[in-house]
Amino acid sequence: MMELSNPFLNLRYIHNYLQYPTKSMSYFWNGVAFFSTFVFVRVVTMVYYWYNMGLAAKEDDFYQLQIPVYLCYLGGGVVFTSLNAYWFIQLCKEAYNVLVAKKND
Question: HEC string of the chain?
Fold first, then answer.
């Protein structure tokens, strides 16, 4: 599910390769679509993931898991949450720059 935002990222690379102006409407709306899908499929789902992990941690069966499985659940969640948080911050900075530039035009 996390990969649903990738087509918009790839379209951005295509725009850059074809030297589309960064102020074109196509470039702008592709950025809006990328940001929206990124937030929905990467950020919102992480909240859902950690909520479910919290519910699972309340169950006794959760602590019966083998150590590698337990580490994958928790370690994978920490790694992906950290990466998604980093990229979300970068996207927010870029979105802010685009909106400020668009407002100044």
Answer: CHHHHHHHHHHHHHHHHCCCCCCCHHHHHHHHHHHHHHHHHHHHHHHHHHHHHHHHHCCHHHHHCCHHHHHHHHHHHHHHHHHHHHHHHHHHHHHHHHHHHHHHC
